[in-house]
């Protein structure tokens, strides 16, 4: 299975989607980033594991509902464990990988660069723009060219 470890703030929630008067403030994703994420999912058949701090205090079902309300449906399969912010996100992703035997390849989409040994798998975004066309193309390239976890 192909996995995208996905952050939300700075990836799907961008400067463009932070409109305080909007009734969805906090849960509304940037429509351009959403379109590019859907393109990635369609091109790769990847599934999403949420690595964002949004997983803290929310259930998998709640996150799936937020994604569905933003036009992204049936793709989130799990959440990385949370070490209460005491570690780099890459260690939480590594812990997920250590317990999942059916991951054939993966990428990390995040605006955070602290991934430790998993840094080569990071496709870094910018909070202002989130997923751009270049990032979309890079993620698709990595997920279609990657042949293993090493």
For the biggest sheet, the summary is: 5 strands, parallel
CATH superfamily: HAD superfamily/HAD-like
Task: Kindly provide the name of the CATH class.
Answer: Alpha Beta
Number of separate helices = 4
Q: Helix/strand-derived class?
A: alpha/beta
Ranges with pLDDT <50 over ≥5 residues? none
CATH topology-level fold name: Rossmann fold
SS elements, strand count: 5
Strand content: 5-15%
Q: Report the principal-axis shape.
A: globular
Radius of gyration: 14 Å
Strand adjacency order, main sheet: 3-2-1-4-5
Oligomer: single chain
* Chain-averaged pLDDT: 89
- Rounded to the nearest angstrom, the distance between the terminal CA atoms is 15 Å
H/E element order = EHEHEHEEH
**Residues in helices, as a percent range:** 25-40%
CATH architecture: 3-Layer(aba) Sandwich
User: How many domain units?
Assistant: 1
Mind explaining what this structure looks like?
This protein has 150 residues and is α/β, with parallel strands linked by helices. It has a single domain, classed as HAD superfamily/HAD-like (Rossmann fold, 3-Layer(aba) Sandwich), CATH 3.40.50.1000. 32% of the residues lie in helices and 15% in strands. It is built from 4 helices and 5 strands; from the N terminus they run E-H-E-H-E-H-E-E-H. It has helices at 31-44, 60-69, 89-99, 133-145; strands spanning 2-6, 47-50, 76-79, 105-110, 122-124. A 5-stranded parallel sheet has the order 3-2-1-4-5, with helices on one face. Helix 2 (60-69) links the parallel strand 2 and strand 3 (76-79). The two termini are 15 Å apart. The mean pLDDT is 89.
């Amino acid at each position: 299975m192909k996995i995208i470890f996905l952050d939300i703030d700075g990836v799907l929630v961008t400067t463009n989607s932070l409109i305080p008067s909007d009734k969805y403030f906090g849960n509304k994703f940037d429509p351009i980033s959403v379109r590019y994420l859907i393109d990635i999912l369609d091109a790769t058949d990847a599934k999403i594991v949420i690595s964002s701090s949004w997983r803290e205090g929310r259930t998998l079902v709640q996150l799936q509902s937020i994604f569905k309300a933003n036009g992204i449906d049936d793709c989130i399969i799990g959440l990385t464990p949370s070490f209460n912010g005491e570690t780099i996100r890459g260690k939480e992703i590594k812990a997920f990988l250590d317990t999942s035997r059916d991951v054939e390849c993966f990428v990390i989409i995040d605006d955070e660069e602290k991934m430790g040994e998993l840094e080569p798998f990071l496709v870094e975004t910018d909070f202002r723009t989130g997923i751009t066309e270049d990032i979309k193309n890079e993620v698709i390239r990595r997920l279609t060219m990657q042949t293993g976890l090493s």
